[in-house]
Amino acid sequence: MADRSNSVELFIKKISDYMSDDYLYVDISTSIGEAVQNLQKQKKSVILIKEKNKLSGIITEQDIVRKVTFISDQDKKVSEIMTTPVIFVYEDDLLFHAVGKMRKSNLRHLPVIDLKSKVVGVIHANKALYAELGKATEQIDQMTFDEYDPSALVKIKQHQIKIVERLLAENTSALDITYLLSFLNNVIFRRSIRIAEQRVNKKNIIKNIPDYTVLVMGSGGRMESFLYPDQDNGIIYELPDKEDPKKVDLYFEELAKDFTKFLDDAGIPFCKGNLMATNPMWRKSLPEWKNQVQSWVETLSEQNLIYVDMLYDFRSVYGNPELANELRDFIFDKLINKKILKYLFKNEESRQAGLTFFGNFILEKKDPENIGLLNLKGAGTLPLVEAVRIYSIKNRVNKSNTLARIEELNNLKVFDDHEKDFIISAHRFLTYLLLKNQIAAVKSGKSIKNFINPKLLLDREKGLLKVYLKKINELKTRARVEISEEYF
Hints:
Blueprint: H1 6-10, E1 23-27, H2 32-42, E2 46-51, E3 54-59, H3 61-66, E4 89-90, H4 95-105, E5 109-113, E6 119-124, H5 127-131, H6 136-142, H7 150-169, H8 174-201, E7 212-217, E8 233-237, H9 245-266, E9 283-285, H10 286-299, H11 302-312, E10 314-319, H12 321-335, H13 338-348, E11 374-375, H14 377-394, H15 402-411, H16 417-443, E12 451-452, H17 459-487
Parallel strand pairs: 1-2, 4-5, 8-9
Antiparallel strand pairs: 2-3, 5-6, 7-8, 7-10, 11-12
Helix pairs in contact: 7-8, 7-9, 7-16, 8-9, 10-11, 10-12, 13-14, 13-17, 14-15, 14-16, 14-17, 15-16, 16-17
């Protein structure tokens, strides 16, 4: 791939690639004199202040020059001059998000935290970085809004279209673009949940709000979202000893009602299948989640296997990720059971890539709205994702992203280098065609869907699509043979 401009790289680079340890982390009870002395001794630029192991304040070099220099009593506490609350970013955020926040608030430093609110680094503003943004600056500023303004969520969603169109024109990898879309949806999720927390906490349903995490499932869980995906989410929470379990669940039910409504208003519509945290099935304490998963794998009905499939592709988007990790490990231990793997594969076996034995596209014949069109998701990306997923389960690859799964399967010699390259290329190309088609639909005022008209493709695109769909069917056939030998 040709080198991209720095402004394009900005939209696909993670903050974790740019953060540093150029900070001093002190307790809120620390004196100003001690903090400044240690700052100079360790040659750091920023003082971050914690209270009860959570980020509470920040003191920059400018603060020290403007405030500390004129303080005669060096025993005063850092809490007296720190700036609070602190504007921060998450370690899995993308670089442009940090740039936007720094530009909006005129900041030179941003603390970086993980989902447990633990400080993991700091990112510095850089004049050279700003100077190289070019036309991207305007788009960044348009997606940087007040953290607690619900109307801003709609604007973030709307600007996704412009960003995707620009990145496609820059020949950015389609897989990078779907990662960016997933990230932007995560921003909307996190802001929706924070706004919902503020509203629900005022109802005083419970005194002690327990640790919890919000899950995103499906394509969002794999960080492979297209434009306007449905909501697929859930909540895992802990049960505090001194709270009524019914009231605890009521709290999270109210929270779910609020944040899912914010998401729907923003352009991430309610799941038609009710796969959301407003549904008690997808909102439980950790022990209840484990019991439910146990019941699903013991029953092995077609519907239960669909639920298990959805849960295999999830990630924590907000709150304590350790709850999600514990559930993921529990599910993973169940899925590597030979009998369950067999039924999982049988449940997906009929979903083939949209190509006949003679090399013609399989076009829609029943759906009136899509007659004569090719379902590029249902008969393209989905069979590929499922094939990679079943190999990942079989070979105990506990990764949530399709690309990461392919890389690990290559490391394990399940896919050789040529197969790895071909499968990744197929994944990228199908994703590109879907994104290109979605942008074209938006620009012509049509609704976004996963069907394309093969007649409108370039000859080269038609040829490549047939090659890749054939390869996906071969991969599914190979999986059937290998799993049949071992499990049937």
